[in-house]
Amino acid sequence: MKPRVLFIVTGDPRTSPRPAEAVRIAAGVGAWKRADIAVYLQEDAVLALGESSGGPMEEEDYARYWPMLAESSQPIYVQKNAAALRELGQAAVLFREISDGQLAELAAEQTYVIRF
Question: Is the pTM of this model over 0.85?
Answer without folding.
Answer: yes
